[in-house]
Amino acid sequence: MLTIDSHVHIWTRDPAYTWAADASAIPPLAADPEGLLALMDQEAIHATVLVQYIGYLWDNSFVASVLKMYPDQFMGVCRVNPTDPTAPDQLSLWTELHGFHGVRISPHADARGDWFQGPLMRPLFQRAADLKVPILVLTQPQRLPRLLHLLAEVPDVDIVVDHLADCVLHEFTHRELLRALARHPRVFMKTGHVWANSTAGYPWRDQFSLLHYICEHFGANRLMWGSDWPFCLQHGSYAQSIAYLRTEADLFSTEDLSWILGGTAQRLWPFVEPTPPAVSPPPELFRQDSDANSL
Fold first, then answer.
1. Rounded average pLDDT over 21-36
2. Is 165 exposed, middle or buried (0-12, 13-18, 19+ CB in 10 A)?
């Protein structure tokens, strides 16, 4: 089964890549690509989407360097400054010159995210549609009505809602917002990060009903798994970040899982399938010449 981790962060302590001055300190967790590749090998993960970590803000250089080193294993999602009128051009630059395939925006639910209500969003959404790259939206339910409005204005953009927008099933408003999003065929949902709203330990069974609800309305071919490594390690192992779907959540069919664990991500991030090795023809045991005596 093709398996793609659609949501991973990496960073480095190499001074060549400057941490943003107004960002918090580098998390104590290690997040180097080599360590990630080792975990991917252990868990049979074929490829991974690297999502620019907010600590670097709009400088995507480190992820860009990793994409060049490991083009078959990784694709990247950049960040651009959503309050800058040149944000669409920034997205074009990181996409066309550095190979990124997508952009992430993170409108807070409070006043810090009010830029999401402003006029700069439609041009950014339209540029992503023109470039044919998805927009990842990290937000909370309060901002979903604005997202629905933008989708009405730019219906041909692919949207990935990160971490289920922190929706909870017992909130009627949350359920209705999810249903409204599901009516837009180019909206996708990430099923990872379920531990965030769980009051139980692994495998976070109290969130399974939400996963079932999402699958019922979106369909498995619009759901995707993402580990949120390395932050998932604060709640369990990397192996557990996928095992809750592979072996614990009995609400999905094998076909559903093939979409959630890799097929859906492949729709948005078309990783190049490795070319199978050339198969040499079997050696000729007999060679027939015109002269029968040569046999």
1. 87
2. buried
